Amino acid sequence: EVQLVESGGGLVQAGGSLRLSCAASGFTFDSYAIGWFRQAPGKEREGVSCIRSSIGSTYYADSVKGRFTISSDNAKNTVYLQMNSLKPEDTAVYYCNARNAWGQGTQVTVSS
């Protein structure tokens, strides 16, 4: 069974940083793409970033390019999302996704 557990969200002022973690289990970690999505109140869930560590491939939405960095630690089966220069519009629940499974989400709130 695929399980994904996010952590690391919180309240931060604009310009600040947070690092989200997604701990994965139940599948061969580095064989699949793992993505971060977010959903703000009243908006649809959107893709933020994705990594496939076996081929060294990453993807970023235009809205976060240059500010967010995705990485993985295969020994810990964990994917990270380092978020810098946060903006109020980054406020959302952030979800981890792999193999059609979703984590429970972690709230990120950026105050102006």
Please explain how this structure is put together.
With 112 residues, the protein is mostly beta strands. The chain is 0% helix and 54% strand. The chain is built from no helices and eleven strands. It has strands at residues 3-7, 10-13, 18-25, 34-39, 46-52, 57-60, 68-73, 78-83, 92-98, 101-102, 106-111. Strands 2, 4, 5, 6, 9, 10 and 11 form a seven-stranded mixed beta sheet that branches. It starts with a strand and ends with a strand. The mean pLDDT is 95.
Portion of residues in beta strands equals: over 45%
**Average pLDDT number:** 95
Gap between N and C termini = 40 Å
- Give the helix level as a range of percent: under 10%
Given the C-alpha coordinates, what overall shape results?
A: globular
Largest sheet: 7 strands, mixed
Structural class: mainly beta
Count of alpha/pi helices: 0
